Amino acid sequence: KHNLTVLNEFILMGITDRPELQAPLFGFFLIVYVVSVMGNLGLIILTMIDSRLHTPMYFFLRHLAFTDLGYSTAVGPKMLTNFIVGQHTISYNWCASQLAFFCIFIVSEIFILSTMAYDCYVAICNPLLYTVIMSSRVCQMLVVIPYVYSVFLSLLMTIKIFISSFCGYNVIRHFYCDSLPLISLICSNTYDIKLIILAFSGFNLVLSLLTILVSYMMILVAILKMNSAEGRLKAFSTCGSHLTVVVVFYGTLFFMYVNPKSSHSFDTDKMASVFYTMVIPMLNPTIYSLRNKEVKNAVGRTWKKYKIFLILQL
């Protein structure tokens, strides 16, 4: 038993403790983070300035890019800093802030992905009523509710953890302040905190995944009823990018939390965490840009306008 103490900072173990890997990993993740920021910011700006992308689908895509940018930025800069400094410390307040912002954006992303699945369902199964069902007010509510809920859940979990009594040991076995590694440092009773995390995590996963599964089952039924191959191809192209993003995102989460702990090491868990905190935010705008003709056309139109603007300035 450690004596109770007031902690001013924590020590992050990081991704690896091998000195020869620090520089290569810093370079790799710097490129990943820069590409992620540029891609997501580009999607946000593109869907705002191009009038042809002012549709519910791209409204949700803008918020998906915002959440990707949010949780990768909550983790990325501090992780990159730790590669190049000697001490991998993080202050008590910044650790709490990192946990809070990460939870806000990751929970929001889960429900925005499920909202996008519902949007695909309406677009394919009820095309004539699409603009009525997915009105501007409905779209705004479908993103406001997840944001409000995620802020409530994040504050509840962060406050419960950081009002607890920590032991003298302050080494976090992770590269960022996550809830479970922090709970292992608490000396007081953690039953309530674990129950809150388990209950809300189960609720978030079941509700979002059920929405996605039901939406795509209805989409599949609608596609099978279509007579023309052109109609089926158009339906697949409508939801293909979203389905790819969902498979990558939920596949990583299931790998981390569904596999028995004995079947994979702590280092494997960290690599999976790196994938969904840094790599997935980079992949999402790439997937939507490469697989979506409307996005590629919007990029072309914006680039032409930019070139014309430069010519006029000269």
Automatic annotation (TrEMBL):
Cellular compartment(s): Membrane
InterPro entries: GPCR_Rhodpsn (IPR000276), GPCR_Rhodpsn_7TM (IPR017452), Olfact_rcpt (IPR000725)
GO molecular function: G protein-coupled receptor activity; olfactory receptor activity
Record-level GO cellular component terms: membrane
Keywords linked to the UniProt accession: G-protein coupled receptor, Membrane, Receptor, Transducer, Transmembrane, Transmembrane helix
Ranges of residues in domain G-protein coupled receptors family 1 profile: 39-288
Sequence intervals crossing the membrane: 25-49, 99-124, 144-163, 197-223, 235-258, 270-290
Superkingdom of source: Eukaryota
Keyword Membrane among record annotations: yes
Keyword Membrane tagged: yes
Membrane topology designation: Multi-pass membrane protein
Major subcellular site: membrane
Protein name: G-protein coupled receptors family 1 profile domain-containing protein
